[in-house]
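chain below, 173 aa
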Amino acid sequence: MRGEKDRERRSGAVTVRRATPRDARRLTRLVRGSRAYEGPYASMVAGYRVGPDYIETHRVFVAEEAGQAPDGAGGRVLGFYALLLEPPELDLLFVADEAQGRGIGRQLIAHLRQEARRAGLARVRVVSHPPAEGFYRSVGARPVGVVRARPPAVPWDRPELEIEVGEPEGPAD
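prediction:
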């Protein structure tokens, strides 16, 4: 086991783990620094905060590259997502700009599907950032509608999609 862990650290392997309140600052920086929210979308993340209370209340998971972050909080955060259970919804999914194109988003969606099945869910709603709709469709989400703009907070319509996660897992034996 120890040898496997050492290999993971050397290779820069990406793992997904449950977020802790200690991750709050790093997740907030990832959201606020996302180039996907520049220009007309900047108002969505200006002042946004992923607080320790949010992490404790919801199922938040971090994709992390093995190693040590400069702040001593573990490996480098490459992305994260938050799954709300009631009603079932993907509340947040962000991948660090420098990690785009490495399959991190797909890895997070695969993890989301597993978590949703464990929670007894069959599908998860996604209200997408308009430029991210193509990504969600590429991982199998299907369009189900449009969430209308609510100015001034959200000045544009957003695609509403649904991710099928398969049959919920039965009770453990």
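Residues 104-118 form the longest helix (15 residues). The helical segments are 2-11, 24-32, 42-45, 52-57, 104-118, 133-138.
thats it, cya
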